[in-house]
Amino acid sequence: MKxxxxxxxxxxxxxxxxxxxxxxxxxxxxxxxxxxxxxxxKLVDGKGLNIGRVxxxxxxxxxxxxxxxxxxxxxIIESGSRKEGIKSKFFWIEEENRINTAVVFxxxxxxxxxxxxxxxxxxxxxxxFISFFQQNLKEDDKLIISGxxxxxxESYHLMELINFAKKKNCEIDVDIGGTWLKEIVxxxxxxxxxxxxxxxxxxxxxxxxxxxxxxxxxxxxxxxxLIITHGKEGSWGFFDETLIKATPKKIFSDYSVGSGDSFxxxxxxxxxxxxxxxxxxKIATACGIANTLHYGAAIFNKQDFKxxxxxxxxxxxxx
Length: 319
Prior knowledge:
Layout (H helix, E strand, L loop, with lengths): L9 E5 L3 E8 L13 E7 L1 H12 L4 E8 H14 L3 E6 L4 E8 L4 E5 L8 H14 L5 E5 L8 H13 L3 E5 L2 H10 L4 E5 H8 L6 H10 L4 E5 L5 E5 L2 E7 L10 H14 L4 H15 L10 H8 L2 E7 L1
């Protein structure tokens, strides 16, 4: 039987996938130091898989997630991805993927997220993964880089992937933080950069409200589209001489785990559909809000999304 070839236009890097375990506690425990869960939500996670999940919800299928997996948790991630229909390929390493645990104290409207450190990857595994990546990335694909990586996978390894992609004439769209963020922006600027306002301040010492400085930063680093999320205040998109603000009219929940991934996926979906920039931001914001309606990252349905489109206000400003 001939193996089916997966045709894609968007390649999503998911270097550090995980398995999420949410425990929802509806009322205070009468026993000190003992928590009894009322509901449990289990799902595969990692920014790339969350993007794939939202793509599926919106009906976009021309993508492929490249995942690094290992151990028994890796098997769960592979099985869960296939069960959800998240289009994926898997590169296997020796060490086991992480399990992240969320404890939601519903009666107090708060939660605790416990993230494991994740696996170590060997130099040999890194070299093999780079070959795996090069075999799967095609000319003129869009490369989405989102999230963290296994321990020992360094920034120069990521730069090798980016440089290869640029030689393939690929668009580079990025949503990462920390030291990698600054290095990518300064060494090999992406076409689209999605960042939150806190990361902008920490990494580049720029306040989102200093719009002239933000736009100068975008121009200086040759970033075509700079998208900054700003919590409950929505998002700001900086483009050539134009600032577009997308603001939620109503916020339903403070449970925002996965909202950034959902937002980014919505924006990328709009770009793939060649919608106007203001429509892309509107879709992105609606996805981010819809994510807060349910427990778990990127867990919402098409109707949730459609309902929230009416909950987004768009404003254009000439810079």
